[in-house]
Write a structure and sequence with these properties.
- The chain is an alpha+beta fold and about 375 residues long.
- It is built from 15 helices and eight strands.
- It has a five-stranded mixed beta sheet. It has a three-stranded antiparallel beta sheet with strand order 6-7-8.
- Strand 4 and strand 5 form a beta hairpin.
- Helix 8 runs parallel beside helix 12.
- It is elongated and about 95 Å long.
- It starts with a strand and ends in a 7-residue tail after the last helix.
Length: about 375
């Protein structure tokens, strides 16, 4: 006789007539007829067949309990599902530490801000599709990107709860109310000049960090988290020991960076270029500072991440080979999708640092390009 791992979905899809026994409880099964499905249990040496109800009037869970009683097994008392707040606390304690610090902060902010206020007192098995979709749908009306992130993080949380606390996620079958659209914003030559001049006017720390991010093409967290010990003035290189992709990133810098580093005040209490108030952690006031910069920098809305994209795009326009641009961005070899210049095999076999090529790209192309833009504003319009 056929044997199957009986679940609600499996049972609902059984169409072919026959008897199907459960792999979890072998003497328990379901007989599928032409017009109905009947739960059965086989008992004793004589294998007496006993009917215990029809599906779907009797659910799988109820039928299995009845079968266990008839077979002489004690039915495990059903524990109450924890509340959303209780499960969330365990999620933060167990799962969140496996993520990177920045991701931990983002996930915690989303769940605490959008879901906890209305769901915290509800038990997980009481939360419905509509409870979740109401939150994400309302959010999509005013903040589409935030709605996408909220949907994604909530789905991760509820999937983590299965089967720890509940049998099914209330988000099964739900789709995000918005679609993630990668940003494509690249600053024009005119905008590069505007941002640079505004950054000069704002000064240290935010303005200085903006100019370094544009010169280096580094991620914002890597820029503001840079330490003097990472900088080799003799070789004119910066070595970031820990980056987003888990690798060390060493890249060269030119005269513009050298001059800018000389402007940064040195505080004996820290090696950070941009220390926070405690002198231990990097400065983290970019959100407020970016908002204030809008008064000085009158260009279309942009984000700090756009500086990195602009760096890469302009280097490509300056005819810097794609694999050198990727090295400067600290992308892992093999991730580039450009006419097969770098393949996945390169990630294993190609260990070249391309330091000379990167130095040439920065000192002979990138910095001269920026210098000419800043020296001749009329050229920036071209």
């Amino acid at each position: 006789m056929p044997v199957a791992h009986l679940t609600d979905i499996v049972v609902s899809r059984l169409k072919k007539p026959g008897t199907y026994f459960d792999t979890h409880l072998p003497a328990f099964g379901i007989r599928v007829g032409k017009n109905r499905k009947t739960w059965i249990v086989m008992r004793g040496r004589s294998r007496t067949r006993t009917s215990i109800g029809r599906y779907p009037a009797v659910s799988l869970a109820e039928a299995r309990k009845k079968a266990m009683v008839l077979l002489g097994s004690a039915v495990e008392a059903k524990a109450k599902a924890p509340t959303f707040a209780e499960a969330l606390a365990q999620f933060y304690a167990v799962h969140l530490p496996t993520l990177k610090p920045r991701t931990q902060y983002a996930v915690r902010r989303i769940l605490d801000r959008h879901f906890a206020p209305s769901l915290k007192h509800k038990r997980l098995d009481e939360i419905l599709h509509s409870d979740v979709s109401k939150i994400t749908d309302e959010l999509a009306k005013t903040a589409p990107s935030e709605a996408w992130h909220a949907f994604k993080d909530a789905r991760t949380f509820f999937k983590w709860c299965v089967p720890r606390f509940v049998g099914h996620s209330p988000m099964e079958g739900l789709r995000s109310p918005t679609r993630y659209i990668p940003r494509k914003r690249v600053l024009t030559n005119v905008e590069i000049v505007e941002v640079w001049r505004a950054a000069e006017q704002v000064g240290y720390p935010f303005g200085t960090a903006i100019r370094l991010a544009l010169l280096w093409g580094t991620r914002w967290g890597e820029t503001v988290g840079c330490r003097r010990t990472f900088i080799n003035k003799r070789e004119r290189t910066v070595t970031l020991p820990e980056t987003k992709n888990g690798t060390e990133h060493c890249f060269p810098y030119g005269g513009m960076t050298e001059a800018l580093l000389e402007e940064i005040p040195r505080l004996n209490s820290t090696e950070l270029l941009f220390p926070g108030r405690d002198g231990v952690n990097p400065w983290n006031g970019s959100g407020k500072a970016k908002w204030e910069l809008k008064e000085t920098c009158k260009i279309a809305p942009w984000q700090l991440l756009d500086l990195r994209r602009t760096f890469a795009t302009k280097l490509a326009e300056l005819k810097v080979p794609p694999h050198i641009v990727e090295r400067l961005l600290n992308h892992k070899l093999g991730t580039l999708k450009a006419q097969g210049i770098i393949t996945a095999v390169a990630d294993v076999y190609n260990r070249a640092l391309y330091m000379d090529e990167m130095r040439s790209a920065i000192e002979e192309k990138w910095e001269p390009f920026l210098t000419s833009l800043l020296a001749d504003p009329t050229q920036s319009a071209s």
